[in-house]
Amino acid sequence: MNFTAPESLIFWTTLIFVVFFILLKKFAWKPILGAVKGREEAINDALESAENAKKEMQNLHADNERLLQEARSERDAMLKEAREIKEKIVADAKELSVVEGDKIIAQAKATIESEKKAAVADIKNQVANLSVEIAEKVIKEQLSNKDNQLKLVEDMLADIKLN
């Protein structure tokens, strides 16, 4: 086989390519495909988790809206009841005296305010409980992986060293 320079170059290039291709196929192809497949699964899992979190946030939003609507209806009922009480108190106050009427109206307003504050405090407690539950779920998810736990501990130790 007597080759000229270009033919020799083509022969050796083809031979090196074939050997390189066989080596890649034998040693690197499966690990590369495995890594790509693992990355694809991780991305799909992350997308599914994001979708679940989105659905959960929508559910929480709907619950919050329902709670707000209930609070509004309770407030309206309380205001209606307070108006009725006020009208009765005003009628009684006109019979007794203007001074006594002012005293009763002040007491009614204080009662309305305290009930309003109690309702707001109850809503705040419910929202706080929901927030704690969400935070707990997020932290559990973040700390479910040992690597994430180790990173968190290292970050905390770094913060302590900085202080």
Automatic annotation (TrEMBL):
Listed Gene3D superfamilies: F1F0 ATP synthase subunit B, membrane domain (1.20.5.620)
Keyword presence, Transmembrane: yes
Protein task: Component of the F(0) channel, it forms part of the peripheral stalk, linking F(1) to F(0). The b'-subunit is a diverged and duplicated form of b found in plants and photosynthetic bacteria. F(1)F(0) ATP synthase produces ATP from ADP in the presence of a proton or sodium gradient. F-type ATPases consist of two structural domains, F(1) containing the extramembraneous catalytic core and F(0) containing the membrane proton channel, linked together by a central stalk and a peripheral stalk. During catalysis, ATP synthesis in the catalytic domain of F(1) is coupled via a rotary mechanism of the central stalk subunits to proton translocation.
Ribosomal protein is among the record's keywords: no
Cell location: Cell membrane; Endomembrane system
UniProtKB keywords: ATP synthesis, Cell membrane, CF(0), Coiled coil, Hydrogen ion transport, Ion transport, Membrane, Transmembrane, Transmembrane helix, Transport
Top-rank taxon: Bacteria
GO-annotated cellular components: endomembrane system; plasma membrane; proton-transporting ATP synthase complex
Cross-referenced Pfam families: ATP-synt_B
Membrane topology according to the record: Single-pass membrane protein
Annotated TM spans: 6-24
Parts forming coiled coils: 36-88
Single GO MF descriptor: proton-transporting ATP synthase activity, rotational mechanism
Name used for this protein in its record: ATP synthase subunit b
Gene that this sequence comes from: atpF
Family statement: Belongs to the ATPase B chain family.
Lineage: Bacteria, Pseudomonadati, Bacteroidota, Flavobacteriia, Flavobacteriales
Subunit structure: F-type ATPases have 2 components, F(1) - the catalytic core - and F(0) - the membrane proton channel. F(1) has five subunits: alpha(3), beta(3), gamma(1), delta(1), epsilon(1). F(0) has four main subunits: a(1), b(2) and c(10-14). The alpha and beta chains form an alternating ring which encloses part of the gamma chain. F(1) is attached to F(0) by a central stalk formed by the gamma and epsilon chains, while a peripheral stalk is formed by the delta and b chains.
